[in-house]
């Protein structure tokens, strides 16, 4: 996107965002506004975690860095030298070709840096700026610190930008607890913001569908969740928020300021209104507990935004679907299953129909007041097709019948299987369709998005392989070799998902790349006597140049006489070593296994042919 924007507009846009930083840098370079605009237009912003190494001493780093936010510690010979703040600059400040840097830079906390290639940096600065750099004694150590600390806008600090994680400071604890994964405070929020509102809403909806005497069975559960929600409101009194006071970011307890937020009055209503149940003589006051579903939105803000949790979004979506279906089911029980008198005349069931009914579980609607009615099989009475109706004997079985009705309405849009007997039931059935259809679209969109997110690499890889096969086929490649290419690409995906290493690893900062590749492949370099004695900084940079290649079984890797300036390190598998004697007969010399190597001489001395042939015995 940066390349598609006009040069002047790109300079104006970048200068607007980085003006304070680049003006502080200009106190060292003395290049004026023209230099400032060119630097920021070519710079790329990078983000570093606390304690992350940006450059290491003796690394070949082709970058120049400008501190945008945060603090950078400069070290030489493993000792702290100086602290760099906003506008300071470090990296190779002279020459167009990379050379070993003379210091180590480490992010003290979260840090944002502007990164520029040394070639672009040298092309931009003029002779006067080069003179200023050469006169600076710190430049000999590849860094220059600003003399005057630039006042940071508190609303533009990393601390304020990264705010949002829930924090609390309990009276009996000195440290501040954050809602990080697997922490006790995180589990408490899962309990009070997700499980509590979800369970209390399910119980409240179910309680509307039962008789007053049955309410006593579940009333203690409802009271327990009320107490839990009260404890949550009390805990919110001690939460910490990041505020700007006198130009500085400070963590301050919320306390009584929580009542300035209207959301907490909804929580209070969800606790107070159910207390009027006995006064008004109706259980409908208990529906006020449904107001706690607002806590699910808080749960979404705390755990589902960004990459804070992978489980929370799945739980939230599952809870929404379950609550919707549960609410529709309980609504059907309330609308269609509480009539004392059956709304139509019931025909007498024939003996054939009675033989298919289990009267231990089902009863006639005339023998029970209310209940969710279901139809029987069709039978004939006086030459006419008639339907009978049955209701469950036990009241809790009404939920199963109502759930079946909702499921039938969802799966049989054009078949009138659910018989609506009264006008309210007809209206409710229409309402169900208006609710279920958007929910179905949403569920399908979530499912498609999840599948695409999981398999998009496979789709992309398969598309590229298909293009390759079509190109080779049109180019006249024989079918045998086409089949070999197909088998290889299939094996490549099964072994390592079609890529040598995830692309994100190649896009990581240089020192992080060195850490990743060192952990994966450094043991191979240490097996070679030539590299074992070399300095660690050289091996760390060399290991990032390694590329992983998968060789299919039964294939020649290189043949005798080939000229390839490559060193091969066997990460997995077995490789056979062959040579041709004077009589022209091929003989196997040895077998190389994991952690073996070959091709050292051609790699060190280019244009030197291989003296042996190497043949893959297994997948290597």
UniProtKB/TrEMBL annotation:
GO molecular function terms noted in the UniProt entry: voltage-gated potassium channel activity
A GO CC term assigned to this protein in UniProt: plasma membrane
One Pfam family recorded for the sequence: cNMP_binding
Ranges for domain Cyclic nucleotide-binding: 47-125, 530-620
CDD domains noted in UniProt: CAP_ED
Full protein name: Cyclic nucleotide-binding domain-containing protein
UniProt keyword Membrane, yes or no: yes
UniProt keywords, alphabetically: Membrane, Transmembrane, Transmembrane helix
Membrane-spanning parts: 188-208, 220-244, 315-335
GO BP annotation list: regulation of membrane potential
InterPro entries referenced in this protein's UniProt entry, alphabetically: cNMP-bd_dom, cNMP-bd_dom_sf, KCNH_animal-type, RmlC-like_jellyroll
